[in-house]
Amino acid sequence: MSHPLFDLTGKTALITGSSRGLGRAFAEGLAQAGARIVLNGVNAERLEAAAQEMRDQGFDVLTAPFDVADEAAIVAAFEALDAQGIDVDILVNNAGIQFRKPMLELDTADWRRVIEINLTAAFVVGREAAKRMAKRGRGKVINIGSLTSELARATVAPYTVAKGGIKMLTKAMAAEWGEAGIQSNAIGPGYMVTDMNEALIENPEFDAWVKGRTPMRRWGLPEELAGTCIYLASDASNYVSGQIIYADGGMISVL
Ligand code: GCO
After folding, report:
1. How far apart are the CA of 159 and the centre of ligand 1, in A?
2. ipTM, 2 dp
3. Could you read off the pLDDT of 207-254 as tens digits, one per residue?
4. How many angstroms separate the Cα of 255 from the Cα of each of 56, 129, 137, 151, 196?
5. Which of 17, 30, 137, 214: disulfide with 249, CB 3.0–4.6 Å?
6. From ligand 1's centre to the CA of 211, what distance in Å?
7. Do the bridges between strand 12-15 and strand 36-39 make them parallel or antiparallel, or are there none, so unpaired?
8. Where are the domains positioned within the chain?
9. What pTM was computed for the model?
10. Could you tell me if the CB of 197 is within 6 A of ligand 1?
11. Domain 4-195+221-247: what homologous superfamily?
């Protein structure tokens, strides 16, 4: 039995980019804490398969397939939820892509796409969710940042800039939406075992660097982020806003 402050029974959580990876781990954790889950992704088939897997575990799961880079699709998705009487109490802005290339070789179109998906989408989806949360006088927005919200790594400039923006967007949301009863916070994952990082994990030099640079001497597992997400989605964090919590094995805190 979880502490009542962490109980999400009766709450609905929308997690963008949640058919796999970190988004799926957030969805599983929030479901285990009692929330109804709305999964999101661009691939409707993969999304439905993920939803069915979670339903088979006994969780209450819906799907809202839309591309976070498509503002009209985002607006339509929220209108469809409205029409079904589904209120999003918790939003996890997780969807994101990675694009590794030195800036001197980087096309502007690739720069723009990363910023669009990793930063602008969090604003658009956040705005649509907050419009509705504000009417109810409560809501939780959880943006997914990165170690690159604080520190730059060569060859991932657009991702770094977007994640730095996520940190400040989180504070801007806290500044504007606090009086409406909405808390806006972020999670900063460390180097996690995900599909997006597969090339890094399989690179012996990079793998050794991550393990040497991380006090816990290992990569993180997506499910290790669930507790921080549950905390920020729950009443346990009702007076916490504008913060970014790093779950990174200690990496951001050491030289
Ligand atoms: C990279 C990685 C990182 C991690 C994560 C670290 O190329 O350096 O993709 O960006 O995914 O964001 O916090």
Report:
1. 8
2. 0.98
3. 999 999 999 999 999 999 999 999 999 999 999 999 999 999 999 999
4. 45, 38, 42, 12, 25
5. 214
6. 14
7. parallel
8. 4-195+221-247
9. 0.98
10. yes
11. NAD(P)-binding Rossmann-like Domain (3.40.50.720)
